[in-house]
Amino acid sequence: MPTGTGKSLVIAELIRRIMQQYPYQRIVCATHRKELITQNSETLRGQWPTVPFGIYSAGLNAKQAKHSIVFAGIDSAYRYPEKFGVVNLLFIDEAHLLSPKSETKYHQFIRGLKKNSPCLKIVGFTATPYRMGQGLITDDGIFTDICYDISDYKSFNNLVADGFLATLISKRSATQVDFSELSLGADGDFNKSELEALLDTQDINYKICKEFCEYSQDRKSWLLFAAGISHAENLASILRAFGYPGSAVHSKMHVKERNAAIAAFQSGEYRFLVNNNVLTTGFNHPAVDLIGMVRPTTSTGLWVQMAGRGMRVASGKANCLLLDFGGNTARLGPINDPLIPRKKGTGKSGTPAIKICPFCGVYNHASAKHCTYCGKELPVFTQLNQTADTLDVIRTDLPLCEWFDVDRAIYTKYMPKDKPPMMRVTYICGMTTFEEYILLEHTGGILHKARKWWSERINMRNVPPTIDEALKLTKHLIVPKRIYVHTNRMHNGKNYPDIIKFEWVTK
């Protein structure tokens, strides 16, 4: 579920219903930050005032592992899984943080719980079900399926239209820095020391703060993301010199000092916070209406999590303006339709679905006909200014994409050698045809993708388990109006066009 749509409420209501129907269950809800432990437990108390629960967290000075419901910090719990006894359900909040590697804290905790609870079930909750280098968290990890997803483009926009999320307006800043010469660290993101050395100069910091303040006059709560601790301190110093109250927050601050600064920001005493690696996930302050993204990243998950801090709805807040000094929107796409990272060795993630308004410079989704900020009609095609790319890189790495109108679709059974059967879908687009294969009899992430494909095309609760059963139902499938095709997939090891998007008839 997108950031701001109430995962804590979902967790609380799920626990309440489970315990009222099956009162002998034991549930542990684990996460990585004490603030999330407090938020999740207090939300459950609001949903179910009389519920008894325990908290196991050194940061909250509590070691209550024997309750039927326990909210636990993974840093405290992973060493002592035996203290929790038999556990039927393990909930993991911010599940994208769970690495597929076997020696992480979560894996140690799970292995320990399974000694007493071999039938343990694990459920993850996240706004970003993917990781750099892994792809979807259902690829080669402990999670096998995504059972509920409203983070896709259509669902996301419906949440905004229905008032559950605030509108996020992403604007390309005038101050742009070229990051093309930076190397990547072991985690696949920009090298942190090189990045901070490039950005944290007096000239660049002054230009960024000056431009930021020019857009800030009607904005009440500002949140900035810096590239390092020194960078955060220097940006905060300049903003204070401009006359605005606020502070930097980072990992080297004393906990009491950091908590005091965050409290002052949430109460309205501080106009701004500049943070580094503190408020990227789990920070809940709905009033944020201006974000300064001064931290570039190659991580789609980090980008979506940071930008999502401005998506919560608040009284008197019309929208949240995001000034993208790091070029993340052009690099990774809009947060409601970002480039999903792929597993290592499977090629690049593609190109972001954006276009820039030539009148006000705001980023819009590629399908938008009018600018979300100024309302002016957008041209059909907009050339992006790719400051971090060279012409050669564009020629070799960027696929050629084109929309094709679909006349009809034909469904047939395909029997590959030594593999389960597939359903071949052939789209007739005038004199051109394109094919894709639906793998309902496979396993893992491929099966999840096939099930999602099916559920988008038919109002049917159960997905057929075999291709033969699926073919009997194809007359009920909705055929897309148009398909968006990568027509030069040869460079990614494929020798056929790749269908990546669909457009449906609006009823």
Automatic annotation (TrEMBL):
<dbReference type="InterPro" id="IPR027417">
    <property type="entry name" value="P-loop_NTPase"/>
</dbReference>
<dbReference type="InterPro" id="IPR006935">
    <property type="entry name" value="Helicase/UvrB_N"/>
</dbReference>
<dbReference type="Pfam" id="PF00271">
    <property type="entry name" value="Helicase_C"/>
</dbReference>
<feature type="domain" description="Helicase C-terminal">
    <location>
        <begin position="200"/>
        <end position="354"/>
    </location>
</feature>
<dbReference type="Pfam" id="PF04851">
    <property type="entry name" value="ResIII"/>
</dbReference>
<dbReference type="InterPro" id="IPR014001">
    <property type="entry name" value="Helicase_ATP-bd"/>
</dbReference>
<feature type="domain" description="Helicase ATP-binding">
    <location>
        <begin position="1"/>
        <end position="129"/>
    </location>
</feature>
<dbReference type="InterPro" id="IPR001650">
    <property type="entry name" value="Helicase_C-like"/>
</dbReference>
<dbReference type="InterPro" id="IPR050742">
    <property type="entry name" value="Helicase_Restrict-Modif_Enz"/>
</dbReference>
<protein>
    <recommendedName>
        <fullName>Helicase</fullName>
    </recommendedName>
</protein>
